[in-house]
Amino acid sequence: MRTVRGGVNRVLVGLAGLVLLAVGGSVLAVGLGAAPPSWWIHQGPHDVLLSTAERTRWRNEGWWWPVVLAALALLLLGSLWWLVAAVRRRRLAEVLVDTGDGEGAVLRGRALEEVLAREAGRADGVEGVRVRLNGRRTAPRTRVRLTLAPQVDPGAALAGLTTGALGHARASAGLDALPAEVRLRGVKHQAERVT
Predict the structure, then answer these.
(1) Which pTM value belongs to this model?
(2) What is the extent of the structural domain holding 142?
(3) Which among 35, 41, 94, 117 is most buried, taking Cβ atoms within 10 Å?
(4) Mean pLDDT over the full length of the chain
(5) 3-state helix, strand, coil in the chain (%, to 5)
(6) Which positions ≥6 away from 10 have C-beta within 8 Å?
(7) 20 in a structural domain
């Protein structure tokens, strides 16, 4: 579903770009002196796109300004929604596991995230774990956030995560590689007093 949505998104952006490029290029060409066809919206470099009569035609109608404002608001909201949808990182829904028989199996992404988080959370000094899968179903990537206790060595925690939870997940899913972006954070604590 995501690949279809991504393909449709690219096609729509491409078509909108081509239309804007064609209209803008033709307006520029006419403005620089090229001869336009008889049906074109303006006929020469000194012609305006909208005459005064066309611009003020419905200005005194009671419905005009609410319709204009509503249309602009819808256009703005639609553009913002599209921007947020395009920028937002999505979770990987499934991972394709090579079973060796040519068919393959599908592993739910949330299940792999939960197993990774559970195994990483069992390590000494790990106070909290958040795991997120992204990438493609044949080449997943992980983002791991570890919250560590104050006395834990970050290097040892990272090495344990790499050889432990991430290594086991890569081997059990039959993946050649499982790249990971790991963010380590310490638990906030108050200073201890020595008497």
Answers:
(1) 0.53
(2) 94-186
(3) 117
(4) 83
(5) 45, 15, 35
(6) none
(7) yes
